[in-house]
Amino acid sequence: MIRGLFVGRFQPFHLGHFYVVKNLLEKVDQLIIAIGSAQYSHTFKDPFNAGERIWMIRSALDDEVDPKRYYVIPVPDVNDNRIWVAHVASYTPPFQIIFSNNSLVKVLFQEAGYNVQPSLLYQRELYCGTDIRKKIIANEKWEHLVPDNVARIVKEIGGDKRLREIVKKNNTHEVVEKD
Ligand code: NAP
Questions:
Q1: Domain boundaries, the chain
Q2: Which atom of ligand 1 lies at the shortest distance from residue 80's CA?
Q3: What is the pTM of this model?
Q4: With 13 labelled, which of 19, 37, 41, 104 sits at a CA distance of 20 to 30 A?
Q5: Would you tell me how many other CB atoms lie within 10 Å of the CB of residue 95?
Q6: What is the third-level CATH fold of 1-179?
Q7: 49-104: per-residue pLDDT in tens?
Q8: 7 ligand 1 Cβ < 6 A
């Protein structure tokens, strides 16, 4: 049994993530989808809380993927990169492969002795969390960029209104540039 790990913030879980997850499930028996920065919500970079992101991911995958084949596990950040890999592993079942394109994530897991492999970048120019959040704020069409159930959940929790309110209250430029 090979279990893989895929880490992301999934703000929100979009069709690029969806295709990556389906691709990774062809390579491993089980996939752990770790929701990074799990303690954050209600910011431009991280508008949705961990439970909302878990709901989105499960709702997007449930019709297509056997739920026994994946876990969705929230992992808060820690203010110390030296211990982050052990911190992630302390939340998850054992895994043998980690898929990431993030250079920091790759270095940290490689140094800890894991088998690190690149994850697919599926139509990156089209599917990008930051662009989707900007489109929601600008009242542009964004629903076609996420699984149907994710669009439904964003609206059901008032996530579109939340994003617009957040950037009204904060210095928009500062918040956008941080991502
Ligand atoms: P991320 O911050 O979620 O994503 C970074 C960028 O890469 C985003 O633009 C993301 O796009 C894009 N991306 C990631 N995977 C992709 C894929 N398969 N295809 C296309 N684009 C992709 O970073 P991450 O590497 O996905 O997640 C890392 C998580 O680990 C973060 O929550 C980070 O805070 C955490 N971390 C914590 C520590 C610590 O606590 N010390 C150390 C290292 C990492 P989208 O916006 O479209 O997703």
A1: 1-179
A2: 41
A3: 0.93
A4: 104
A5: 21
A6: Rossmann fold (3.40.50)
A7: 999 999 999 999 998 999 999 999 999 999 999 999 999 999 999 999 999 989 99
A8: yes
